Amino acid sequence: MSIKIIQGDITTAAVDAIVNAANPTMLGGGGVDGAIHRAAGPELLAACREVPVINGARCPFGEARITTAGKLPAKFVIHTAGPIYSQSDEPDKVLASSYRYSMRLALENGCRSIAFPAISCGVYGYPLQEAAKIAVSVCLEDEFKHLDKTFYLFSEEVANVWLRELKRSI
Ligand code: AR6
Prior knowledge:
The chain has 5 helices and 6 strands. It is an alpha/beta fold. It has a 6-stranded mixed beta sheet with strand order 1-6-5-2-4-3, sandwiched between helices. Helix 3 packs parallel to helix 4. The structure holds ligand AR6.
C-alpha cells in the first residue's frame, strides 16, 4: 500500500483514475472540476451527460460516478460530490464516504492507482486539518491496500497539512 503527496496539478497525473471534486449535477464548475474538464476536452462533459439523473442528481453528495477521461493521461475520471461544509449535517461522514466510494469504484474497474485532490477544501469550505485527517484515515483502510494513492494538492499550505497528517498516521 502506498500513499504519496505531490504539490501539483492533478490533470497531469499518470494514474489509472483521477478523482474530480465535482458537484451533484456533474456538469462542470470551477476549481479542480473546471481544470479537469478543460484538460480532458469536450468528451468528458459528453460522458458526464450520459450518467443517469436520479432525483435531480447524477452524483448525490458522498457518492461517486466513473467516466472515461477524454484527453487526460488517466484512463478514468471518478467524479465525487464532497459535502458543502456549512450545509451538511454530518460533513465528516459524507467526506469519508466520498473517498471510500471513489476507491471502491476504482477497484471495481480494475484500477491499481488513483489520484485525489483535496475534496471539499475549496469553495465547499471544509477545514483543511479535519479534511486531511479523514482523507488519510480512509486511504489507510485495509480494503484499499492494493491501490496506489496519490494526493495532488495545489498549494503548499494544503500539501503541508496533508504531509503532517500522513506522518502522524503511519
Ligand atoms: N489540481 C489539484 N488541485 C486543484 C486544482 C488542480 N488543477 N485546481 C484546484 N485545486 P474546489 P470543492 C484544489 O473548489 O471545494 C466546483 O465548482 C483547490 O485549491 O475545486 O470540492 C465543483 O463543480 C482546493 O484545495 O472543490 C463544485 O461545485 C481543492 O482542489 C465545487 O467546486 C478543491 O477545491 C466543489 O468544491
